[in-house]
Amino acid sequence: MPKVGRPRKFKSPAQLQRAVDKYFKKTGWTTRTVLTADGKNTKQIDHYEPATISGLAVHLGTDRHTINNYKTRYEPEFFPIIAACRALCDQNIEQGALVGKLNPVISKMVLMNDHNRTEQHTLTGGDGNDLTWRVEVVAPKQGGTNPKELENKASEGEEPQPVQLIEPKKGTA
Predict the structure, then answer these.
(1) Which 8-state DSSP code applies to residue 39?
(2) Where are the domains of the chain?
(3) How far, in Å, are 10, 14, 37 from residue 61 at the CA level?
(4) 59: which residues sit within 8 A by CB, 6+ positions away?
(5) With contact defined as beta carbons under 8 Å apart, do 53 and 85 qualify?
(6) Exposed, middle or buried: residue 67 (CB in 10 Å: 0-12, 13-18, 19+)?
């Protein structure tokens, strides 16, 4: 059966490694020449270029899915190269966010979406057991849901009255 699909861009792991090395050499701190606000003069500025999987894909002239294919579908010799790239990008994003050079929210999003990271929240009580939740739905004494009316009643010192009380059993929060 004949092979289907476009031929691989990198025929050997050594060829891929050379291209990857070029990308990582251009990331990090660089100095750029930019125009000043008047548009006539130039100045040198320090610029931080983070290493990312998307940036690597653009540098290689491909996309992130193809990079994943080199990691999973092609010869096993490609796997350590792509795995090392992912680890370097992880480290670069983490460090950039920690030292304030990269936006922490964007860094978190990239790590969760591109690097298979997850976020986990565990809530326990002071004794280490599950929390017991108490939800109380309240309404004003004399009815009415007009926000201005509620505000007036609150400023007069009236307390809202409980309408419904829900208390789940321990461990069902």
Answers:
(1) S
(2) 13-114, 122-173
(3) 11, 17, 34
(4) 19, 22, 23, 26
(5) yes
(6) buried
pLDDT tens, residue by residue, 100-145: 888 888 888 888 877 677 777 667 777 777 776 666 655 545 555 5
* Tens-place pLDDT, residues 25-76: 988 877 888 888 888 888 888 888 888 888 999 999 988 888 877 777 777 8
| Distance in Å from the first CA to the final CA of the chain | 57
Quick check: pTM over 0.70? no
Q: Classify residue 136 by its DSSP letter.
A: E
The fold for domain 13-114 equals Topoisomerase I; Chain A, domain 4 (1.10.132)
Closest to 82 measured CA to CA, from 115, 108, 112: 115
The label of the residue with tokens 């069902």 reads 172
Rounded CA separation 160/151 (Å): 11
Asked whether 17 and 23 are in contact (CB, 8 A), the reply is no
